[in-house]
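Before any further analysis, we paired sequence with structure tokens, yielding the entry below:
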Amino acid sequence: MEIEKQIFLVDDDASIRKAMRRFLFSVGFDVQTFGSAEEFLEFISPQVTGCLILDVRLTGLSGLELQDRLRKMDSRLKTIFITAFADDKQRQRAHASGAVAFFEKPVNDQKLLRAIVSIWNDEKEESGSE
């Protein structure tokens, strides 16, 4: 079974969404963007797989609160957090909630790409695909 390389990006900064979408699309990923956690929750279902790139600080529901809700839904999404305001408490909470990675803005494209690729490599190993 082929793992769909779908990426969901939730960030309330339109310029970040545009730049990251452009970069990720240029390296072959299908990217859907959302301006808020609430908008994303209206769209998502627990069966959806892929990678969620999630800003910690959002207008309304925070990225960490969204991650908690997704976990309660038994979501299969793998999460990478991004933030302009990193602190150790946020980083620890993100990792405790199952985050794959935690990056400070501006995000290094190559580090982000390595984290995303590691998600699909892990999923291939878990599903037994090659």
Summary: The chain has one domain: 6-124. The first helix runs from residue 14 to 26. The beta strands are 6-10, 30-34, 51-55, 78-83, 101-104. The helical segments are 14-26, 37-43, 63-72, 88-96, 109-127.
